[in-house]
Write a structure and sequence with these properties.
Number of strands: 7
Distance between the termini: 27 Å
Radius of gyration: 27 Å
Number of domains: 2
Strand content: 15-25%
Helix content: 55-70%
Strand order of the largest sheet: 1-2-3-4-5-6-7
Length: 365
């Protein structure tokens, strides 16, 4: 028990050290990118640093499996160079028992990341998107209510806005049903209300059918309302922008994802991407443990007299392959190629089974 706790603490220190290094590097790189991106907006270094602090959380969260892999390599290399690995193996401890302590520690880090870091990343992503929208003077926003879909878009250069509410939408976000359009004038406020049975998104315009239009600045809007079979309204929205307006699944805390997925389904959208993300988040602790076990296959041995560089490169290549397998499974899941549960859980299970098989082969021949 004491030995397991010692090895686990060594792994935790290695993980925190590498996490700090990668966080600093990502922050510097992102600051340069923010300055380059918003150079024509007159952004200051302080503003770029604030944007980078918001944006870097998501990038850091995405590379946690790679940090877990490198921490595992670092741990086993240090144990080997200090001859502690020889002493541990001489005490009769098997390879599987040896790797169990850092793997469990990696899983605990993964649980903490999902429970604590995931909501933080979601909040920073939301604030970052809002900050970028303010800088770029974004013209459209999409949100999902409990019983409706809400959209907002700009109306030209005069600062006008148009609010759109729809009871539901088609899965590809090109058609709204039971839609209401309210056009705002920047000086006088709401000036036109339009109700439509159906609103189809075409190239640069909404094509409304079954229309009733009210002029809200008239003395009696209802008396002067008129019915139209069809009406066209200009728009800068596209189906892709509407779908992307809901934000990436990463921008939603994991505790709120099940409710959000249910809301997407009620509104008529496909929630597949969010379902895949939910399963991948639940499987993240297992993924970090798998990375440690993959690292142990190549580096959990006495390195003196061996080609250390080749073994380290092999460990990194195997972990990188598992990382790309995870990303590929996510893409397949997002495109309905595999079920969400399989996309989330198959990669870490494959990595663990691979590591166990190799370790048993090394132990028993």
């Amino acid at each position: 028990m004491i030995l397991a706790r010692y090895v686990a603490n060594r792994y935790l220190r290695a993980f925190l050290l590498l996490a700090g290094v990668f966080l600093a590097i990502l922050l510097l790189i992102d600051m340069v990118e923010q300055i380059r991106r918003f150079a024509d907006k007159g952004i200051t270094i302080g503003a770029a640093a604030r944007l980078s602090a918001l944006a870097v959380a998501g990038s850091f969260y995405n590379i946690l499996p790679l940090i877990a892999l490198l921490a595992g390599i670092m741990l086993f290399l240090n144990l080997s160079r200090s001859s502690e690995m020889v002493a541990i193996r001489a005490s009769g401890r098997s390879g599987l028992r040896m790797v169990m302590a850092p793997a469990v520690m990696a899983a605990l880090i993964g649980i903490a990341a999902v429970a604590i870091l995931n909501p933080i990343v979601a909040a920073t992503q939301t604030h970052y998107s809002a900050a970028v929208a303010r800088i770029e003077s974004g013209a459209s926003t999409v949100s999902l209510g409990k019983d409706a879909v809400w959209l907002r878009q700009g109306m030209g250069d005069n600062g006008g806005q148009m609010m759109i509410r729809a009871a539901r939408t088609s899965p590809d976000a090109t058609t709204l049903y039971d839609a209401s359009f309210i056009i705002y004038d920047p000086a006088t406020g709401p000036k036109t209300r339009i109700e439509a049975r159906e609103a189809a998104l075409s190239d640069g315009e909404w094509r409304l059918t079954g229309v009733k239009e009210w002029s809200l600045d008239a003395p009696n809007p209802e008396a002067e309302a008129h019915l139209l079979d069809q009406l066209q309204l200009p728009t800068e929205l596209t189906a892709a922008r509407i779908r992307d307006g809901f934000g990436s699944p990463q921008a939603i805390p994991i505790w709120e994802l099940p409710t959000y997925i249910a809301g997407l389904k009620r509104a008529g959208f496909s929630a597949l991407r969010h379902q895949v993300w939910l399963q991948m988040e639940l499987a993240l602790p297992l993924m970090l443990a798998a990375m440690v076990m993959v690292a142990s296959v190549f580096t959990m041995r006495h390195m003196r007299g061996r080609k250390t560089g080749g073994l380290v490169l092999g460990a990194f290549a195997a972990g990188l392959a598992l990382f790309f397998l995870r990303n590929m499974a996510q893409v397949l899941g997002d495109n309905a190629g595999v079920p969400p549960s399989l996309a989330g859980w198959a990669p870490p299970i494959v990595g663990i089974l691979f590591a166990i098989g190799i370790l048993l082969q090394l132990e028993d021949g």
